[in-house]
């Protein structure tokens, strides 16, 4: 069969790729097909993409301002035609606040993942590959961080650094890297004595090169899965900090803080607290479904070898 | 003439276990030297010690007249390379053949990598269309060819072969052995080959050493082995064992 008559699918699935790019795309395509075979995972992905969409186009999508309400006429209105999800005690449209709040949620989740995952990956792979006292020191530090309850440690950090969304992100990141270090170390230990790593040692590669280019790529997929599954927990921790008044400060439309302010009217005006609660629930569920799907798609043991 | 590889009084200990006990040997440049013995006799450990993958407790290893320290330098790895026993475990599962072959070139700062990779594949008899395959898309024999290409791409003068064919089926074994023979002839390589298969060693090697529980039993030319001119009972036992199972002797 000539090159020209190949369909795009055949081009991706060919067992003799012609270039580095084609080999990489082919591998990604196989993972994608495995991922899309799982309907729940696709639902999770759609939820997360929806969240990203809301965050990007918040100013266009939100019907009202998230900060300025009509205190005279629109306080604590029930869900209806004018305000689909009702209004809060300041007369602000809850739907608009939720839509803007998606930006904060996404910001927290992304920044925590970007800070915590690389730290955990680096600490874990270096500890696992180096062994000896390096391993002992790094893993004891990890143990110390693991020994603290997450929320309590985050509370302590926020108390020390001052309340605010930025400090909440740092606090959550600091408390969430140790499990990643554990996973990365365990993965590293299983491969560090394998022939293919010794073969690279025999080429004269430096330890850093081996860790960064040969060991880390093997740990990344299980780490991505774990991070995705943890995102729900990160959202909840951020919401918990917000609820306690230690995360985002008013008037920022952070979902946890919105629940906290709705608590006072929970019996008479239930929608004020319920709407952000449902939003947190849906997004957490979305990340969990996505994580489960990624686990099946990225698991090297199931990758048709 | 300086020997390509000289080992003198080499011992390797793992914790309290003595894996290699006072072994000495010399291999001339261009020679093919075999190490035979049962599993656990220390033959693979000897190769690993030369490669720097086993903890040497005493003794010296000399390559081309240069004594090796505890740490090997980059020049050493350009001179000595190794092919592992299990082709299913010696290739990185997430790298294409291209990437596997590029890595040693990148580490040693070679130029003209494109041409070298294509030439290396050609030398081991793999078509260029295999270049961007992942190792799980290759058969055992193809994998071992890639491993040989990877070892030879740095143009070493000494190749350590740790049972390079024992994980392959018989017909593929012959192919890979012929390939190694031919590469040795064209590149004037020095081979140190570990095997438990006496037929393979007599076919491939000029001289060989028989080992048992970390010690040398005897050193002999492979023609002696073929003619059964052996002095030690252990070697005789190996010869009998390799002749296959016989009902009357059992």
From TrEMBL, chain A:
The keyword Protein transport applies. Belongs to the binding-protein-dependent transport system permease family. OppBC subfamily. Gene3D superfamilies: MetI-like. Keywords: Cell membrane, Membrane, Peptide transport, Protein transport, Transmembrane, Transmembrane helix, Transport. This is ABC transporter permease. Residues 106-291 form the ABC transmembrane type-1 domain. InterPro entries: ABC_transport_permease, BP-dependent_transpt_permease, MetI-like, MetI-like_sf, OppC_N. The chain crosses the membrane at residues 40-62, 108-130, 151-176, 224-249, 269-291. The keyword Membrane applies. It is a multi-pass membrane protein. Pfam families: BPD_transp_1, OppC_N. It is found in: Cell membrane.
UniProtKB/TrEMBL annotation, chain B:
One of its GO terms (molecular function) is ATP binding. It comes from the Bacteria. It is an enzyme of class 7 (translocase). Residues 5-238 form the ABC transporter domain. InterPro entries: AAA+_ATPase (IPR003593), ABC_transp_ATP-bind (IPR050319), ABC_transporter-like_ATP-bd (IPR003439), ABC_transporter-like_CS (IPR017871), P-loop_NTPase (IPR027417). It catalyses: glutathione(out) + ATP + H2O = glutathione(in) + ADP + phosphate + H(+). Transmembrane segments: none annotated. Coiled coil: none annotated. It is found in: Cell inner membrane; Membrane. It is a peripheral membrane protein. Keywords: ATP-binding, Cell inner membrane, Cell membrane, Membrane, Nucleotide-binding, Translocase, Transport. Its EC number is 7.4.2.10. Its main location: membrane. Pfam families: ABC_tran (PF00005). Belongs to the ABC transporter superfamily. Glutathione importer (TC 3.A.1.5.11) family. The complex is composed of two ATP-binding proteins (GsiA), two transmembrane proteins (GsiC and GsiD) and a solute-binding protein (GsiB). Part of the ABC transporter complex GsiABCD involved in glutathione import. Responsible for energy coupling to the transport system. PANTHER family: GLUTATHIONE IMPORT ATP-BINDING PROTEIN GSIA, TRANSPORT ATP-BINDING PROTEIN. This is Glutathione import ATP-binding protein GsiA. It comes from Shinella curvata. The lineage of its organism: Bacteria, Pseudomonadati, Pseudomonadota, Alphaproteobacteria, Hyphomicrobiales.
């Amino acid at each position: 069969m000539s090159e020209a008559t190949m369909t795009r699918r055949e081009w991706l699935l060919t067992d003799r790729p012609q270039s580095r790019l084609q080999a990489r795309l082919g591998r990604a395509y196989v993972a994608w097909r495995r991922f899309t075979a799982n309907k729940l995972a696709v639902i999770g992905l759609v939820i997360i993409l929806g969240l990203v969409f809301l965050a990007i186009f918040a100013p266009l999508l939100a019907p009202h301002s998230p900060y300025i309400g009509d205190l005279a006429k629109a306080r604590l209105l029930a869900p209806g035609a004018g305000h689909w999800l009702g209004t809060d005690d300041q007369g602000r449209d809850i739907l608009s606040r939720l839509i803007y709040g998606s930006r904060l949620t996404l910001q927290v989740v992304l920044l925590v993942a970007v800070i915590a995952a690389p730290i955990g990956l680096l600490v874990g792979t270096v500890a696992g590959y180096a062994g000896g006292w390096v391993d002992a020191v790094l893993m004891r530090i990890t143990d110390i961080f693991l020994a603290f309850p997450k929320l309590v440690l985050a509370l302590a950090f926020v108390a020390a650094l001052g309340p605010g969304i930025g400090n909440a992100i740092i606090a959550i990141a600091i408390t969430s890297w140790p499990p990643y270090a554990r996973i990365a170390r365990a993965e590293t230990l299983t491969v560090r004595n394998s022939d293919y790593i010794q073969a690279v040692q025999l080429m004269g590669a430096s330890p850093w090169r081996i860790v960064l280019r040969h060991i880390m790529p093997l740990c990344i997929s299980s780490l991505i899965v774990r991070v995705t599954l943890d995102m729900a927990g990160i959202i909840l921790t951020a919401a918990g900090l917000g609820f306690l008044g230690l995360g985002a400060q008013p008037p920022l439309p952070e979902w946890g803080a919105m629940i906290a302010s709705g608590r006072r009217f929970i019996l008479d005006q239930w929608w004020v607290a319920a709407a952000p609660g449902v939003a947190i629930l849906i997004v957490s569920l979305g990340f969990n479904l996505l994580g489960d799907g990624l686990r099946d798609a990225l698991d090297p043991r199931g990758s048709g070898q | 003439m300086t020997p390509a590889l000289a080992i003198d009084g080499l011992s390797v200990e793992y914790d309290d276990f003595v894996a290699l006990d006072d072994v000495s040997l010399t291999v001339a440049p261009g020679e093919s030297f075999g190490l035979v013995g049962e599993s656990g006799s220390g033959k693979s450990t000897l190769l690993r010690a030369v490669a720097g993958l086993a903890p040497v407790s005493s003794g010296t290893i000399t390559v081309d007249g240069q004594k090796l320290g505890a740490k090997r330098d980059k020049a050493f790895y350009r001179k000595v390379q190794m092919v592992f026993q299990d082709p299913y475990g010696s290739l990185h599962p997430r790298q294409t053949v291209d990437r596997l072959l590029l890595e040693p070139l990148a580490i040693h700062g070679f130029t003209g990598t494109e041409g070298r990779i294509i030439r290396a594949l050609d030398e081991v008899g793999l078509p260029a269309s295999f270049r961007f395959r992942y190792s799980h898309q290759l058969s055992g024999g193809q994998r071992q060819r890639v491993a040989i290409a990877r070892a030879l791409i740095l143009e070493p003068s000494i190749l350590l072969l740790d049972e390079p064919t024992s994980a392959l089926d018989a017909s593929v074994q012959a192919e890979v052995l012929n390939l190694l023979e031919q590469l040795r002839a064209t590149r004037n390589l020095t081979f140190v080959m570990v095997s438990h298969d006496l037929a393979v060693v007599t076919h491939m090697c000029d001289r060989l050493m028989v080992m048992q529980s970390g010690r040398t039993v005897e050193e002999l030319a492979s023609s002696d082995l073929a003619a059964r001119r052996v002095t030690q009972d252990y070697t005789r036992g190996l010869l009998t064992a390799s002749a296959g199972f016989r009902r009357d002797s059992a």
